[in-house]
Here is the input.
Amino acid sequence: MLEKLPMTALYGGVLIGLSATMLLAFNGRIAGISGILYRLLFSHLDAYERSWRLAFLVGLLAGGYMLLPIEFELRKGYSSLLLACSGLAVGIGTRIGNGCTSGHGVCGIGLLAGRSIIATLVFIVSGIITVTILGSFTG
Here is the structure.
């Protein structure tokens, strides 16, 4: 499984880049996944807005599943409560930061947006700190 990881990561990155490029080219929208999902769930949208957001999210999940099948299981050694709280923290962080790694990291940096470059650096540094802290607990 680990020997396939660099290639699956490469394929996944290419697919994310292509989907973001196609969404921008054909729909004039930035592929910020958290924003797309948030507005789908919590905004009053017309049928067109609702349909393209839903189609994009379904395609993102289905395409990843069909083209890059991997075995999935919850992270071992961590409680379900910790994982749920982590997901909630990420969701709150994307609202506070006005975007997620796809919006800032893939699209924003590609457009040379200064706030996206800063946000992505904060994501990376926060990830390094989190892994370092959690790694000290798990040995």
User: Anything to note?
Assistant: Helices lie at 5-27, 33-42, 47-67, 80-96, 101-110, 114-138.
